[in-house]
UniProtKB/TrEMBL annotation:
Biological processes, Gene Ontology terms: xenobiotic metabolic process
Organism field: Malurus elegans
Cellular component terms per the entry's GO annotation: aryl hydrocarbon receptor complex; nucleus
UniProt-listed Gene3D superfamilies: PAS domain
InterPro entries named in the record: AHR/AHRR, PAC, PAS, PAS-like_dom_sf, PAS_fold, PAS_fold_3
Protein known as: AHR protein
GO molecular function, one term: nuclear receptor activity
Phylogenetic lineage: Eukaryota, Metazoa, Chordata, Craniata, Vertebrata
Amino acid sequence: SLPQALNGFVLVVTSEGLIFYSSHTIQDYLGFHQTDVMHQSVFELIHTEDQPEFRRNLHWALNPPHTAEGEPAPEVGKSLGSSAVTYKLDQLPPENSSFLERSFVCRFRCLLDNSSGFLALNLQGRLKFLHGQSKRSEDGSALPPQLALFAISTPLQPPSILQIRTKNMIFRTKHKLDFTPLACDAKGKIVLGYTEAELRMCGTGYQFVHAADTLYCAENHVRMMKTGESGLTVFRLLTKEKRWKWVQANARLVYKNGKPEYIVVTQRPLVDEEGGEHLRKRSLHLPFTFATGEALLYQSAHPLPGFPPPFQSKGKASKSKKPSCSHGGCSQQNGIDPSSLLSTVGRQDKAAY
């Protein structure tokens, strides 16, 4: 099944639904990094409607414990691991039995911008014993090895030629909720030229964004915090060689236990002509002069909610290239909050423009 393995990723899921192992290629299909999913519940990744089907396939008889005949049902809230206690090992079919083969389809959450939020995957594999877990039951006795699902997950629809061609250039970055960079994949390091340490060094990540694009990016950032997704955003990133690289990006919130945990951004490099075309279209829709990055939004005699009095009293809001995006007030030095967009852009090397 080598060709399958090349067009997919390996997944090992324990009987209680924990991801015991995932190959790093999960990132190419779902956008999640290998370390983001390991030892997490697989059900956080699966479409609500498909969770019962996945649960059934984790059980050796396609029959989760609470419906088992002639056996007491486990208490509500107990994990599927309780099936190990309910059934004796000698009642299970031999490990090479065709009863343990699995082939089924589930929709998985997908962070990539060419999906609708979910990707249908065909999971093909079998249940096998997961050895060396040394788990113990409530009374302290050692539990026998559990059956776990070992499967190769492949997209239901084969990727198009265009996707295969552009996949080689697409890179992904991971950010805190304020956009501070946390991680960048190998392709991103090649495109931008930075090491991960250099990306994480200082600032909210806006110090890598062209001054004329920061308000546009910040607006989509706010949209993502409200809706979970930024939509396609085209802007310029500063490379290590002090050049501007156009990218088309889509940012998505990743939730953990119902709360936003971090941001994953999928980015595709564009040629300058494509970027310039997007810039022309953008300037038709928004009241900004994007050639210089100056904003017309703040030419207002009305008080600005959220900005402390020192910022307004100077009467410079309309001339400022960037508004402050901080809610915490301004620092004493020049009255500019160090975490504001204006301060972030001010730290850039002017020679890059």
